[in-house]
Amino acid sequence: MGQEEMVTPGEVLGKATEVKAGKGTYVAKHNGFVYASLTGLLRTVSPPPESPDQRPTVEVTGHKAHGAVPEPGSVVIARITKVMARMASADIMCVGPKSVREKFTGTIRQQDVRATEIDKVDMHLSFRPGDIVRALVLSLGDARAYFLSTAKNELGVVSAESAAGGTMVPISWTEMQCPLTGQIEQRKVAKNES
Amino acid sequence: MMYSDIGRLNCNVSYTTFAAPVRGQGSDHKEFSSMLHKALEGVIILETFPKTTVDVFALVLESGGSDLPVVVSCASLALADAGIMMYDLVASVSVSCLGKNLLIDPVLEEESYQDGSLMIACMPSRYEVTQLTVTGEWSTSKFNEAMQLCLDASAKLGEIMRSCLKEAASATQE
Amino acid sequence: MRNWTELLLIYRYIYIYRMVGLSEGEKEFIKGGIAQDLRSDGRKRHTYRPIYVETGVIPQANGSARVRLGATDVIASVKAELGKPSSLQPDKGKVAIFVDCSPTAAPMFEGRGGEDLSAELSGALQRCLLGSKSGAGAGIDLSSLVVVEGKVCWDLYIDGLVVSADGNILDALGAAIKAALSNTGIPRVNVAAGAANDDQPEVDISDEEFLQFDTSGVPVIVTLTKVGKHYIVDATSEEESQMSSAVSISINRQGHICGMTKRGGLGLDPSVILDMVSVANFVSRQLFDKLDSEISAAEADEDES
Questions:
Q1: ipTM of the complex
Q2: Which of A148, A179, B71, C160 fits A106 for a cystine, CB–CB 3.0-4.6 Å?
Q3: Fold of C29-304
Q4: Which domains are present in chain B?
Q5: Under an 8 A CB cutoff, do B116 and C263 touch?
Q6: Phi first, then psi: what are they for B88, rounded to 5°?
Q7: C259–B134 CB contact, under 8 Å
């Protein structure tokens, strides 16, 4: 790790031939310099010894804590709000370990619920409104919502409440059981990391 | 909301009713919003904000002359403070021409007697002009002189803006 | 290999059916052509499209003109009404410039869609023609509009209408306003003598005699559009869609800058701006000559008909 100093947007951090542009920086095409694009602390990260590109990376971390924004490829925690015949709507609450500040909506389409037999998926047997799911962001989606997917073993319902009001316990990848009544309800359950 | 794969910028400049010396006056400020938009749109890296709109609202509490340059510089400081990714800060200065004299950063009274004015918004570190307006009659040599004056002033203003940002950022760190 | 003119005709045909949405190939074609000083319609970088001027198109207005610049078609009309000068400048008349983008020019101008563009054009024209607040550097001589100092003056309302938009609307409007002003006749006003100092004097507007407006000081507007490394004059709307930025410069006969606005887009190096000013100076001289000859031809036609 290198020394830390405060930089502002537009300050020259180095030449593109000597340093790599990390987060919070950009390379100007016309003169090949690396400039900062945020106000914050500058850090120089040394490259891992085996990589072919031996240039250190410069990064600027913003001084204001930003709410996270879902990006394609990130894992999010969302709460299901609506379940319809071919899709479910969810409110995204966390991106990775950070919670979001603004409201983001995600959609889980029927074909993205699981990896096998995607045309035979029954949405009401996979999710119920109020369930907390772990999902992967597929893309920015359309004007209204991001597209999410639970088509992996470790994705799906993480926590759900039964009709009686108790927090259910997962018993298989399709079933969860209520501890109060013993009733079994169908969900697309996420596999716990063990 | 329209879907777009780069971010969008939305600017609005408004005056309070008590901003002008005579209450309620101030009619040529309708185009300030679009001018602020033009000054800032080349500076924000909109590709990093897909499907998002950045709203900039400027409210002038008291108008004492040279309003638009102050609004532009202030807006760029606000954006830097918000953590929006930008290519550079925008420093903006205006010059008034009274007879043969060039006055930098005119006050309201000087502006009402001016024969011409030149406003420049530029990125000090990259030395690029993002917005430029000229009114009145200028000979080419005078125009060159005024532009040079503005650019030098913007560079100095840029330095002050940077030190101000660094101070504020270090204060929040502690 | 297709004939060059045939290719141009087909290109035009496709354009009429599609307002926006150029393919990558077409964008490269436009940029490459400009870099090689040969634009899609065969022009060089600093050549204007053929300009057609008609004057007196609106008989009820004091002055009017219609200018066609390629497919861009604009109409400017000047109406004069008697009014009271402002207390800050009692020896000057008043001029107001408004631009309206008609929905026939582009479907997106319907309703409030054209408002932003209209406001921008009105602002730019006011800056170019009316000079600064103290009135210095104005292309239009406002003191010629005063009838009785402090009491009665002419208010000129200049209205521009964009009928068809194919790029470079500002230059066309500037030319149309110049033509309309040279076509404008201000009626002669007889002031009743012996009026008391405080009262509004009696005025008698003559129907017969008209004073031609003096337009020697009116500047022309040259818009330079930067595409890649080069600037072009009189861009069509396709070329404008590929621009990185544009600067509109208003220059009068003496070669002085009367107003300048940078329109949108990315940042420009200051040396580029200075270079643009000298290019605009050069181009404006040709434009002045062309416009003056067109305007006198149009007025001659009008007198005959």
A1: 0.77
A2: A148
A3: Ribosomal Protein S5; domain 2 (3.30.230)
A4: 8-166 (3.30.230.70)
A5: no
A6: -170, 170
A7: yes
